[in-house]
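Entry 14. Ran structure prediction on the chain below.
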Amino acid sequence: MSAEAFSANAIQAPRWRNALLRGFASDVMFPLGFIATCLGMLEILSLMLAVPEVLFPAPSRVAIAFFANASTLCYHAGLTILQVVIALAISLAIGVALAAIFTLSRVINDLFAPLFVLLQIIPKIALAPLFVVWFGPGSLSHLGFAACLSFFPILAGARAGFEETSVDAVRLCYALRASSWQTLIHVKLPMALPQLFVGAKVSTTLCIIGVVLGEFVSAQAGIGWYIVQAAALSQTANILAALIVLSLFGLVVYGLVAAGEIMVRRRLFG
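Output, structure tokens:
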């Protein structure tokens, strides 16, 4: 290696490290510092105003409840997140299948698409007791309710992606005598994946809401059941600790979906 190349690499290395440190500070340290500042202010306010713990416990009391019940919280949150993952998979299957059918058949699209739009107008919380009646007070009703709540963003995203496929690419497939299904699977579906992942990320949060609401209505375990039990005993610190655990587990699922999107984008578009 020449002296000039060695000198250039020596200069670029600190720049690379400095850029990495700046990115870490802006993406991680600043948000964590802001959260820590807010928690410190809440701790001081709760002590100064002597707010009753049942109304608003201090962050330190929530932390104590979190660590004291960590194993129980993780157990119930794990059950809930497992149902969330299954419900998300069901939503993906239903949403993509319906979008494919609507794309292939204009008649079916004109007949049934307005019904799904009307379904979204109905307040979903009103449907939760119906799923308990239809599927019983168990995981099946939670999965059905969560899938009903969350499949529409995937359906909308997949349909938008299918319709935005390049017209030239579709014409090329027809010129090569590819069937409608072959065009859909090999051309339209890869092109629709970015829109599909946008809908999937929205559906992830809706799945969490659907499963927890289902556990509020009927459950013997799960984070929703834990919150209901803690509320019955006026254990506000335990409720907030459960919400923290649920948020952390939910971020993991959301992060997995976002990581899948990044991998697909790199594979398809470089």
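Confidence is low (pLDDT under 50) at residues 3-12. Will compare against last week's run tomorrow.
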